[in-house]
Each structure stands twice: as C-alpha cells, then as structure tokens.
Please model this.
Amino acid sequence: MSLPFRPSGPRPNPSQQRGNFRRDKEERGPRRNERIKVPEVRVVTAKGEMLGIMPTERALALAREHGVDLIEIAASAQPPVCKLIEMGKFLYEEAKKTKHQKHTAKMKELKLRPRIDEHDLMIKIRRGENFLYHGHKVKLVLQYRFRELEHAEIGVEMVKRVIAELTNVCTADNTPKRVGRSIVVGLTPLQQNRRKLVHNAEPGEDDLEDDSAEPDEADES
Model:
C-alpha cells in the first residue's frame, strides 16, 4: 500500500497567514492615519464641518485626541481632504450610500423639439444636469414633425449641443441615432466624484418628474 504524499517543506504558520490577511485588508480602501504621507491635508469633521488646511501631524493628533481615525476621502484634491471619523462608521456610511444609489437610480426622459426656444432649452438642460448629478441615466429624445424632417440637421445639432452642455455630469452611451421621426441617445452619469454642477447653483430634489408622462405632440400635416 502506497503512503499518502506529504510535502517536505515546512508547514505554513496559520497566525502568519492571518496577519498577512489583516495587513492586506488594511491596505485596501482609503488611506488612513499613519498611511497618509502628504505633508498637509484639508480636514473635515464627521458632521462635514470644515476645519481647514493643517499639517498632517496636527490632523493625526486631533484624531487621536477625539478617539477617531483620520481617513483620506479625496486623494486627488490639493491638498487631499481627510475626515475625522471612526473607520467602522465610515465604511458603514459608504456602504449605505452605495446601496441607496443602486436602489434609487432611474431612467429619466427628456423630450426636445428642433426649434425649441433658448429659454426652454436651458430649462431642459438644467433638469437633465440635475437628474444626472443624482446618478440617474437620461434618455434624450428629440422629436420631429413631418415638415421639420426637411431640415433634420437642425435637430442633430440641437442634440449635440445638449450633450456638450452636460459633459460635466455625463457621457453619451453612443452616437445619437435616428429612430422613426426622433433622434435618441442615452446619457450615463459620470462617477460621483467627477460630477460638477454648471447650469444649477445647487442640486435640486432627487426625484423630480421627467418628460416620460408627456404625450407626443400631434403631427403636423
């Protein structure tokens, strides 16, 4: 009877493996405490109160004084933004925020006409920016009447303009396509930390109504 194979090398140390797992886990996610190596940071409290720019050592001392962690929440900012908050609470809030975004994201619809006036167009653009800023996808639909198809290029330029006006919050899913007597394109919001308001002074309500309930205008003969 053959004996079972036994490796000749030393057995792995379970405690060492657990230590490596903990270290790898700590290195994932945002930098915190002594892992923050920049000379100065902008500090905010757990409630969002701004404490200003200060040397990193002073920010670490504040964290120790209040019994919390110093967590880097905006590494690309100059200087990086760090928050005074317990790591467990921070991770809980981030998970809750992500879950909320996944459950509330919706497809919003905006309808345009080729000869929409400037005032109404800017209202549409501001509404679209607000939808996208809150993480909703937008279906942009430009509708022609029969006579307007004689100058279809007007509608194409209108759609291109709207897309250009919203590049601060979204990317176009594809090239605008002709579907019957409409031009349709989908807009997908940028990552949350890359979205910027340009046409709105501040975000509006998250769940404003879109144009999906509006009936299509009657065709002109």
Remarks:
- Residues 44 and 50 are 5 Å apart (CA to CA).
- Helices lie at 14-27, 56-66, 87-104, 118-133, 152-165.
